[in-house]
From TrEMBL:
Location relative to the cell: Membrane
Coiled coil: none
Domain of life: Eukaryota
Residues in the signal sequence: 1-25
Protein name per UniProt: Malectin-like domain-containing protein
Keyword Secreted: no
Membrane topology: Single-pass membrane protein
Gene3D superfamilies referenced in this protein's UniProt entry, alphabetically: Galactose-binding lectin (2.60.120.430)
Amino acid sequence: MPSSVSSFFLLLCVSLPLLPSSSSSHYPYGNVSFHIDCGGHTPSTDRFGVQWEADRYFTGGATGIVSEPLRFSLPQEKTLRYFPLSSGKKNCYIIPGLPDGRYYIRTFTVYDNYDGRSHSPSFEAAVEGTSVFSWRAPWPADVERNGAYSDLLAFVHDGEADICFYSIATDPPVIGSLSVLKIDPGSYDSGSVNGTDFILVNYGRFDCGSGQWGPGFSNDSDLFGRSWQSDYNSRTSSSRGIIDAISNSASIKGTDQAPNYFPMKLYQTAVTLRKSGVLEYELEVDAKLDYMLWLHFAEIDSRVNKAGQRVFDVVVNGENVSRVDIFKEVGAFAAFDWHHTVQNLSSSFLNVRLVPVVGLPLISGLENYALVPVDLSTDPHQ
């Protein structure tokens, strides 16, 4: 990913009362959700049924409209809020009245020459006082024009979520939309990684063998609010020519369950190899951070009907970290999820290889999260 924009963002887009309930019924945990159309003056409902609140909870700034609004299919992608230097070097969205707990926070950031200056801005973004997103001019052309979605998981302990923007030089930070959803505090194995001490920043969420789907891209539901993207661009060039995508519409056991609510659709597609070789991914990251990898599997090939028929090793940055036999773990047409933390990463790439032992490897999904330490100076309990 280009260095001008940090690889914190997830997807490139191609195309309130204190506790609003209008859109919260879609989510299974906490019934607390906010969807804010930054720069929007009236409430709206997008074509996927998500209800967006008019812009609110900001500390300053002004509203703008992308230069080519007809190119954007969703109303909340056409407007934005920007923060000129006259509003100060720091500006925030402060979402009040939140129960303490863990939250999924998603932003859409777009420039599209809204100000006619043909100069994408440089700025930093922070959640709960911890820097999480970094934007540097010039942005890649497709990001500058089409925008990008970013998301993370963070704990809120003081009754309000602070999402703040810091201007660099005289550039005004921008934001197109903001979603904040309460999630299960135990999600993504929070307890074993001291989740309250880290923000999990998404560096890639891939549905193997599928295209983009989820909020903002399709009507397919993810009870967690996540969107998923194709794994194609993260496959190594040597893998692309030997990979087969497979799918099965059969029901998958163990999906849409607490605490992670991984959706059934994720496991109904997969990639495997059409011939001998290694199934390999190369994930772009920032060095000096730890990363949590989540790998998702389901045996959806009915020809595999007993343990020992499909066995493969998971090798991360050259280290063999696990041997997987999906059928042995959960049987057929059932979800199996496994995660691994990579520590003290010193390179800008994270390599994941599925190496055959018996038969050919198979994978349904892959997620990569940076473990960003919380800035303790902002913790009200310190």
